[in-house]
Amino acid sequence: MVILAEAPGHSGCGYPKVFIYEEFSMSPNLSLERPDLKTRVKRLIALYDPRIWKEKGIWWTGGLFLVTYFVVVIILGIIWSRSPATFDVHQNALEMLGGDESKLVTGTYTAATAIRIGDTLLNKPGGYLTNDMTPPGVYLDNIPNWEFGVLTELRDLADSLRNDFSRAQSQSIEDKDLQVAQPQFNYNSNSWILPSSESEYKKGLVALTRYLNRLADDKATDGQFFARADNLTAYLQLVEKRLGNLSQRLSYAVGEANLNTDLAGDPSARQSTPVPVQTVQKTPWLQIDDIFFEARGYTWALIHTLQAMEMDFKSVLEDKNALVSLQQIIRKLQDTQDSIWSPLILNGTGFGPMANHSLVMASYISRANAAVIDLRKLLEQG
């Protein structure tokens, strides 16, 4: 290494300054290079050596553990907040039935999809978070609202399986396993213990699995799924109401002035409590992202359910020339699962410079809902 220095005795005497060059070798123990990643990791691990704790004292050690705790909680929170990916409905049903194609009879796709939706709800990264009482689940709100949306669709599907799809006529006997499964999914979603929500939902999944196995068993005639147009129509009527509800709540993110049309079209209609002719409805600021993720969870589950029904009701849909209509609904709903590139759910004004994620989601859902209404009418009249 070369050092440039001023020669002694020449400073301030009017003579030109004389500089001398001195060259010396750097000590092998001295390095100006930054430590590599491996070295940094070793230094970080060394902080957790009990000898270091003893040397630094109790306050330093306590601070180290507190910082470590917060880092772990934040990282887990980020990982657990990711929505699960979609799955292949056909492959899922095949795996649940041991890979035997001959067991994929009418109804097995819908039943297997219901089981997979419930299993994802309980066993995704972090498990079921809605009823968590400890960090990081207790402070997360996006994924618990996503869970509630999924649970809402699962409840509707279980109700339709019990009251419509598994029954030939209104005077028929209910399926014994669906009698158990349907009320289990209606248990309180926030119960932490005695009993926990997870334990009740698991009982429902076990009952659904028994129903699926009886469907696939050609010797068990008591397990039935009736793919009829009127059964599918009844389910689509329920979907219409759910999608319409979500679309309206999402639209209220920017506030809307609405005229009261509750009794429109029926001059003799009455309601229990009078309401103003015009109301202004706006979603509270802290609830905007809650509704967004609830809608995202519901549509995630609905996509898979409709894909399963496309297979189970294929002959009915083809007879009504409605198969393409259902496929179009599924395609519209898939737009709701696009990646969110913003770290926050933005709530810009209608034509303002910022995006409004709630209005975009409402647009996707409204278009899908209009297509569902058209499909239902086609099944009824086509």
UniProtKB/TrEMBL annotation:
Transmembrane segments in this chain: where?
58-80
Can you tell which superkingdom this protein's organism belongs to?
A: Bacteria
The record's annotation in Pfam families points to:
DUF2333 (PF10095)
Arranged from A to Z, the UniProt key words for this protein are:
Membrane, Transmembrane, Transmembrane helix
Q: Does the keyword Membrane apply?
A: yes
Q: Which InterPro entries match?
A: UCP029693
> Mind telling me what this protein is named?
DUF2333 family protein
Q: Which organism is it from?
A: Imhoffiella purpurea
